[in-house]
Design brief:
Largest sheet: 9 strands, antiparallel
Number of domains: 1
Helix content: under 10%
Radius of gyration: 19 Å
Order of helices and strands: EEEEHEEEEE
Structural class: mainly beta
Strand content: 35-45%
Oligomer: single chain
């Protein structure tokens, strides 16, 4: 029996704007989906203890990044991950990549949900899912062209502290109700 509710090893399916009118599945992917959290703080020191800390005071915890190495993506998926709604032309064959400056993103952020997959079947058990309440994709990608490696769009998501009730001050959950 796995110790973690979402399993110890294996793939997931990723859904951005989960449950919303613009839900997008960000699959398939190639490589590892990563969620990284860090805590910041300062050591409390006393002169008599030299460099050894006598305490530690936290200054915040941050979900630093979510990284999804998307591959074999459709332009609809890439519009959700790399562009703005409406940047996919009416034919569905051209995606505009625009420079965006001065845009606040919290209001455009959405839930990102990861669901484990076993034998090609996506988990239907919410207690096994991971949810991050407020996420927004940011640019940090490159496209390689060679005869050795498959092309991957590494999509990174900025994760915001939720400011909406009932999840004020939270990032998300490991397991959903």
């Amino acid at each position: 029996m796995p110790a973690l509710p979402f399993g110890d090893i294996g793939p997931v399916r990723a859904y951005w704007c989960y449950g919303g009118s613009y839900e997008v599945e960000l699959n398939p992917y190639l490589g590892k989906i990563v969620i990284r959290g860090v805590e910041s703080g300062k050591d409390v020191q006393e002169e008599e203890q030299g460099e050894g800390p006598v305490d530690y005071v936290t200054s915040g915890r941050v979900v630093e990044a979510v990284e999804i190495p998307m591959t074999r993506s459709t332009l609809v998926q890439l519009e959700a991950a790399l562009a703005e709604p409406g940047d996919l032309d009416g034919t569905g064959k051209v995606l505009k990549l625009r420079n965006n400056v001065g845009c606040a993103r919290y209001e455009d952020s959405c839930s990102l949900v990861l669901k484990p997959v076993c034998n090609g079947i996506v988990s239907g058990t919410p207690a096994e899912w991971i949810e991050l309440y407020k996420t927004y994709p940011t640019w940090d990608w490159e496209i390689g062209f060679d005869r050795e490696e498959q092309r991957v769009f590494m999509v990174k998501f900025k994760v915001f502290v939720c400011q909406d009730s009932p999840h004020v001050g939270e990032y998300g959950t490991l397991g959903m109700l």
